[in-house]
Design goal:
Distance between the termini: 11 Å
Number of strands: 10
Order of helices and strands: HHEEEHHEHEHHHEHEEHEHEHHHHHHH
Organism: Streptomyces pseudovenezuelae
Strand order of the largest sheet: 1-5-4-3-2
Radius of gyration: 23 Å
InterPro entries: CdaR-like_regulators (IPR051448), PucR_C-HTH_dom (IPR025736), PucR_C-HTH_sf (IPR042070), PucR_dom (IPR012914)
Protein name: Purine catabolism regulator
Pfam families: HTH_30 (PF13556), PucR (PF07905)
Strand content: 5-15%
Number of domains: 3
Number of helices: 18
Largest sheet: 5 strands, mixed
Oligomer: single chain
Length: about 425
């Protein structure tokens, strides 16, 4: 479900009237903008959830110290802001060089607004366009009555301002009636414009209710599994999509929530599915997938990747790179000079309980070759990789290495749905 991008926001008439000059973040113009806020609160980053374009007249920056200005930019980037637009010429005569420098270092889009345009005009125009895109799931504004399901899913996935009676009424209008005790699971699919795979999976699950809609970038669904169904609901949904989805599709499954837990939990599982899908498309997989089938993953399978990139992949780039270098530096240096696969071997081994049999099978190598790799890893790192005190650090660093390798891949894979 492609959100309005920063590039599209900059093309709106009220924004163009402000004569914005892009000072940093040129490569991030296609990141999604979830909302546009204006704030003169210097600690405004604390109120952001991620994906916002923040407008400010720069009053809070005018008399701040250099390090405070840098920290302000860092906090915005860490919260996953889509960009910062600063009005220059009134409260702030010119853009402080340290603000520009920090924004460039972090890849945060920074705009200098050269002409005075009331921020209310910009926010109204931008947010109206964002809402229209979200309601229809398309770039063309469509009336409310045209697609209730798509509108409801878009609002839930984007955590729009809703309330429980409204969600229940709109769900009923869309024919979605989760029974008492039902468990809801969000699903996001990439690689198709049809809902057929969702419908086939629902039939395999037997008795599951569903909200589903196709958007230009992906398909979004909210499944309701009845209380009578036993076993792990997430695993059941994954298995259904492995059987129902076509080869080449990528399917991300959120976590299970109780239908009675409220609409915010409904939103949580949809957002988890969307975030997981983005990671599945941009971060290399830890293990080989099924060569001829769909890639089906879940929020819990990528829990470590999601935690490492909380607030946005770009905002965590430097931190992850430092973690990788600190923990795995000798392995990376060895791999740069010798054909080997030591980091991947280490991660697969750790993910499977340090089982040589399982690791060798997944890597398609013999046990003896695996032992040689493990000995090389321990020799280079100067430690025993099965030491319980080291497992968390080593696994996090190996996972971070994959994330760093995958950075930038999303720019050519076509999805823009990080929640």
């Amino acid at each position: 479900m492609p959100a309005l991008t920063l590039r599209e926001v900059l093309d709106l008439d009220p924004v163009r009237a402000a004569e914005p000059e892009l000072l940093a973040g040129e490569s991030a113009l296609d990141r999604p903008v979830r909302w546009v806020h204006s704030s003169e609160v210097y600690e405004g980053a604390n109120f952001l959830d991620g994906g916002e374009l923040l407008l400010t007249n720069g009053f809070g920056l005018a008399d701040a110290e250099e390090e405070d200005r840098r920290r302000y930019v860092r906090e915005l980037a860490a919260r996953g802001a889509a960009g910062l637009a600063v009005e220059v010429g009134r409260s702030l005569p010119s853009m402080p060089p340290e603000v520009t420098d920090e924004a460039r270092r972090l890849g945060l889009p920074l705009l200098a607004m050269r002409r005075v345009v009331p921020f209310v005009r910009i926010t109204e125009a931008a947010n109206r366009a964002i809402v229209a895109r979200g309601l229809s799931g398309r770039s063309v504004v469509r009336p409310w009555g045209d697609d209730h399901t798509a509108a409801l899913l878009a609002d839930l996935a984007d955590r729009a301002a809703l309330n429980q009676p409204e969600v229940e009424a709109r769900s009923a209008l869309a024919g979605f009636h989760p029974g008492p005790g039902a468990r809801l699971i969000g699903v996001s699919l990439h690689g198709t414009r049809e809902v057929g795979a969702v419908d086939r999976a629902v039939r395999l699950l037997g008795g599951a209710g569903v909200l589903r809609a196709a958007f230009p970038g992906d398909v979004l669904a909210l499944l309701a599994l009845p209380v009578t169904r036993t076993g792990d609901p997430v695993r059941a949904v994954q298995e259904a999509f492995r059987a129902a989805a076509e080869p080449g599709l990528t399917v991300a499954v959120g976590h299970a929530v109780a239908a009675a837990s409220g609409w915010l939990r409904w939103s949580d599982t949809l957002r988890a599915a969307r975030t997981t899908l983005e990671l599945a498309l941009t971060v290399p997989a830890a293990e080989p997938g099924v060569p001829d089938g769909p890639l089906v993953t879940s929020a819990r399978a990528l829990a470590l990747e999601r935690e490492l990139t909380r607030g946005g992949v770009d905002a965590n780039r430097d931190r992850l790179a430092r973690l990788v270098q600190h923990t795995l530096g000798p392995l990376l240096a060895w791999e740069a000079a010798h054909p080997s696969d030591l980091v991947r071997t280490l991660e697969v081994h750790l993910r499977h309980g340090c089982s040589p049999t399982r690791t060798a099978a997944l890597l398609h190598i013999g046990r003896q070759s695996l032992y040689q790799r493990l000995e090389r890893i321990e020799s280079l790192l100067g430690l025993e990789i099965d030491d319980p005190d080291l497992l968390g650090e080593l696994l996090a660093a190996a996972c971070a290495h994959r994330v760093v390798r995958g950075m930038g891949a999303g720019q050519v894979r076509g999805l823009r749905t990080v929640a």
